[in-house]
């Protein structure tokens, strides 16, 4: 007998909860903010909106379905099942945070604070959820399959992201490595830089877009469902031993960017999740390109 679907509600601790946890009470948090010219009521109201959205979504879950909740900080320890319907209640970035842990489950993005989020990934309101559950269960739901990016190291470590992957040194130190494109005639360049950023069409609404704009926007941005990535080297440094000729480009579906570490320690992390990074050391090689997996985002 098949299991009933399970709704997994993904949420994030609010700013208000973080403030109260840090300062002990509402009053002390209010005093801290007021001493810096801020009113806690603004933060508390956003907290209340987030909680109301969670309550409304929970109430719309069919009675015969199972349900579970997971906070952003616990995503790397949560086991998603093939029958799950993942409901992300919060900001666009929270959808990106959960994407790497999924394997084809449908994702509903619920905007908990309309007007503050662009709504690129959290496309729905809490009152829409009941109808979305029905269409998802019947298979009639319209789904976008968003392209993701992956990095695979030579020791089989693998990292997946929806927006972008960053390869570089921890903190503000210089990253040293050799960079090249596979099947590009063996052209490789030694570089010293602030790191390499490889992003998708979804990422083109965030960090990748800011770098793209700084470079003059010469490369066409990919769409979220297009199997094409953009990559940029950040602040490459010219020296007698390092070059700056390979600093930007495109990666179609079959192409891979190849980076060989020439530092004691580099890291790769995706979508801002620095706590879930792949660590690389001298001589290791990592290949980055379009991921075979997709994020199935319900329209």
Report on the structure:
This is NAD(+)/NADH kinase. One of its GO terms (molecular function) is kinase activity. This protein is globular. 35% of the residues are buried. The mean pLDDT is 93. 22% of the residues lie in helices and 33% in strands. It contains 6 helices and 16 strands. The longest helix has 21 residues, at 40-60. Helix 1 (15-23) packs across helix 2. The strands form 2 sheets. Strands 1, 2, 3, 4, 5, 6, 8, 9, 13 and 16 form a 10-stranded mixed sheet that branches. The chain has a 6-stranded antiparallel sheet with strand order 12-11-10-7-14-15, with helices on one face.
**Uncertain runs with pLDDT below 50, 5 residues or more?**
none
Helix-strand topology string: EHHHEEHEHEEEEEEHEEEEEE
* Fraction of residues in H or I helices: 10-25%
Q: Tally the beta strands.
A: 16
Q: Per DSSP, what share of the residues sits in E-state strands of 2 or more residues? A: 25-35%
**Number of helices, where a helix is a run of at least 4 consecutive DSSP H or I residues:** 6
Q: Measure the end-to-end span.
A: 30 Å
Please name the defining characteristics of this protein.
ten-stranded mixed beta sheet; six-stranded antiparallel beta sheet; 299 residues; 16 strands; single chain; alpha+beta
Outline the secondary-structure elements:
Elements: E1 6-11, H1 15-23, H2 26-34, H3 40-60, E2 66-71, E3 84-90, H4 92-99, E4 106-111, H5 129-138, E5 143-153, E6 158-161, E7 164-168, E8 175-181, E9 188-193, E10 196-199, H6 207-214, E11 228-233, E12 248-252, E13 257-261, E14 266-270, E15 278-280, E16 285-298
Helix pairs in contact: 1-2
